[in-house]
Amino acid sequence: MIDTDDRKEIVFPGDIVEKGELNMRNGVFRSVDGSYRSQFFGIVQKGDEFVDVVPFHGTYVPRRNDKVIGKIIDIGPSMWTVDIKSPYMTMLHMNDTPWKLNSGEIKRAIGVGDYVYAKVQTVNEVKESWITLKEPGLGLRKLEGGHIIYVPAPKVPRIIGKAGSMVNMIKDATNTRIVIGQNGLIWIEGQIEGVLKATSAIELIKSMAHTNGLTDRMMEFLKIEKKGEE
Amino acid sequence: MGTPSDKKLIDENGLRLDGRGPDELRPIRIRTDVLERADGSAMIEWGGNKIIVAVYGPREAYPKHTQDIERAVIKARYNMAAFSVDERKRPGPDRRSVEISKVISEALTAAVMVEQFPRTQIDVFIEVVQADAGTRIASLTAASVALANAGIPMKDFVVGCTAGRVEGKVVLDLSKEEDNFGQADLPMAVLQKSGEVVLIQMDGELSKEEFDSAVAMIMDATKRIHEIQRNALVEKYQNIEAGGEE
């Protein structure tokens, strides 16, 4: 879905999206006349199997199994309320953490203002959701130190790149550790120069997310930045 | 204030006060992303109208009793600046602006896929900076651009236009003088692709034939206005092809 040679076609809400042999996925609805139409003002992305319409702007809505970064905004006796930059707050229960905690004293583990990297465990019909820190092997944790930046959720796939190529390039070039949440919050840790460089690289991707050939341009950008340092 | 009612609104050549023919629109210009902190925004200049629309959300609906468990609630707020009209308007909501806010909210709800965001509200703030007849449909036209700009899922665009009767003739897009001294005014908004009517109001009287020709005029005009909406949105991303071929 990224960096294809095809031109990216801009569509408006209600425009017909040509599907060809592919299946429709996100951002498309079936209208009463049976045609497939775009829900968004955005670009059509055709992959090997699916067609998506990716909007230029938009909010994040929690989906099961997404990995997100959230900020703790409130603490109850046994649950944290977490802001994931979505219309809906999400919840983290003390039993979904790797620590053994007693009800009423969970703020010793995570306090208000802390960030967590968590997985969305369940989402119900009215978009109430619960996240978990308990799954091993995914790197879910409380994020200590580092810096947080935000990009709109629809742009996250471009920042990650094909199989993580883009973010790995930024990590290597700037010598930082980066964690990206599907909701658009990004955690960056490292030397301050590296963090600033990574931030400006991500800002650049954010402003050019709708164009082709982004990887090449980023390589160029990161090289130039390096030269300036020497 | 205004023109005296004995002034000819349509001259012997069939042209109107501002030189337009009966089915001509006033110049329309729409710009997007005019506000930094709004999720989506648009400014429309339609003849003498100048209107800014800001969209925020979807976000959690407050006060909580306004939440709908099954869909998002669209809260449009139409407000006229005190200096937007000839004689100072008393600021704040009045009977007229509450009504317009309501009909605009309902018209937009028909286009937005509200069922995707249960329990939320989508705020649409409409500020009329300068008014010159037809503000409700100009607001609606700009509001649907601002919603698309905010990345809110929609089935279709809402496009509005007015028509009316001036000196016995049916004309499109009434100006302020025609609105004040004409015999009828018909604001109407439709979903662009399906032609579904989402707002229709009438002030004054039209015969059945006049009504039909007014509606036909509006339907034709909405196509032209929709083209302006699309161009306004795409303006910012015009370099997309250039970027693709590098």
Short description:
The complex is a heterodimer of chains A (230) and B (246). With 230 residues, chain A is of the alpha+beta class.
Q: Can you give keywords for this protein?
A:
heterodimer; A: 230 residues; alpha+beta; OB fold (Dihydrolipoamide Acetyltransferase, E2P); TATA-Binding Protein; 3 domains; five-stranded mixed beta barrel; four-stranded mixed sheet; 4 helices; flat; disordered N terminus; B: 246 residues; Ribosomal Protein S5, domain 2; five-stranded mixed sheet; five-stranded antiparallel sheet; 5 helices; 10 strands; globular; disordered C terminus
Q: Can you describe what's shown?
A:
The complex is a heterodimer of chains A (230) and B (246). Chain A is α+β, with helices and mostly antiparallel strands. Chain A folds into three domains: 2-55, Beta Barrel (OB fold (Dihydrolipoamide Acetyltransferase, E2P)); 67-143, Nucleic acid-binding proteins (OB fold (Dihydrolipoamide Acetyltransferase, E2P), Beta Barrel), CATH 2.40.50; 147-221, TATA-Binding Protein. Chain A contains four helices and 15 strands. In chain A, strands 7-8-9-11-10 form a five-stranded mixed β-barrel. In chain A, a hairpin with a 3-residue loop joins strand 7 and strand 8. Chain B has one domain (28-236): Ribosomal Protein S5, domain 2, CATH 3.30.230.70. Chain B contains five helices and ten strands; from the N terminus they run E-E-E-E-H-E-H-E-E-H-E-E-E-H-H. Chain B has helices at 95-111, 135-149, 176-181, 208-234, 240-245; strands at 28-32, 40-46, 49-60, 73-80, 120-130, 158-166, 169-172, 184-191, 197-200, 203-204. Residues 240-246 of chain B have low confidence and may be disordered. The interface between A and B is large, with 36 and 38 residues.
